[in-house]
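Schema walk-through. Below, the input block comes first and the output block second. Nothing else is stored per chain. Lengths vary across the set, and this one has 418 residues.
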Amino acid sequence: MAITIDNNALTPSQGAVIKVIGVGGAGGNAVNTMIDSGLSGVEFIAANTDIQALNVNKADVHVQIGKKETEGLGAGADPSVGETSVLEDSDLIKEAIGKPHMVFVTAGMGGGTGTGAAPVVAKMAMETNALTVGIVTKPFKFEGNRRMKSAEEGIAKLRNNVDTLIVIPNQKLMEINKGSLTLQNAFTMADNVLLQATKGISDIIKGTGLINVDFADVKSIMTTSGDAIMGIGEASGEGRATQAADSAISSPLLEEYSLQGAKGILINITASSNILMSEIDEATEYIRAKTQTDDANVIFGVVLDESLEEKIQITVIATGFNKEEEIVDEIPSDVNTQHFDDVPVQQPKRERIVHKLHGDSVNPNHDSRMGGISAKYEEKGENSFNPETYRTGINAVPNLGTDKGNLSQPTFLRRKYN
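--- output ---
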């Protein structure tokens, strides 16, 4: 049963406390998708002006914002209403956030609540000194220029209030599927990409591999000066480890980046217990070589998921590209913090890492969740992976809501987007 935030009845967690806050309709839908996937080790919060959507959300914690401003009827696609609403109930948001180590803020940009409220929510998270990651979507082209303009403005504000920003352009999902994507499937696929981005990072913290990956390691990667890029790849058969690694760094949703010059790389390798030690070596060394530097800080974790059978999934987060950052106006700073005197409210000076997903088309030569591969690689090694050697997380990166690994056939529920 969900908790409605109106008191101090939150239960602290052990270890690194990670929270996912879905803001608005799209953010709430993304949270539902994460919960349905079995994502564990994180606490879920849904914040919305729409009381009907909030009441059916599966998050552990519900926060209704803008009760006076909207009377529970939503923001009407007006970001200023979303911003006013979250400022109206800032104490409730701050109480829900608490004092975590890491916060993911997820939303669909272009509407009212997510666009207006997400930057404010992120600012509150940053003020607790939590590592704050924004993961948001941009509208489909058919949603119109006005919505896209609103999204860009919201993203610009959010960029100033997160450590790392991942922007997923929904239009690329349509282009990848070459006209075969239904409306329902399109929104579901967007939710699933948000899920993948979140799991790729949270699993590396909650599940440790042969080399222990703790929160401090991840924080050092995510707060490195410059931009970040993220990719996800999957492969099976001969040379699967290198193919999956190549897919992850060649994702069609990525901007035209290479790993050359990356200062920090986080690698999540997910496979069944038949993974070979040599395959782990292949994947990590292949990715490391693409940076073309010996100075990159590379950390990795291995998560076991027996349902993958012969497949390997790899998520790569690379940081430190030093792209010049756009300067935009800050969001209003008049957030009430009177009930949080014990929380440092002076925002630490941190370099923001901006990541925009963008790219070309999928190479269909092999089964890859997000990208293609055009080369063949030699399989190495005979020493099988011993699961007793690894301390692993409970959950693995799931597939992106697809059937038989085909992005054009995801499972779906109709998504409501503000």
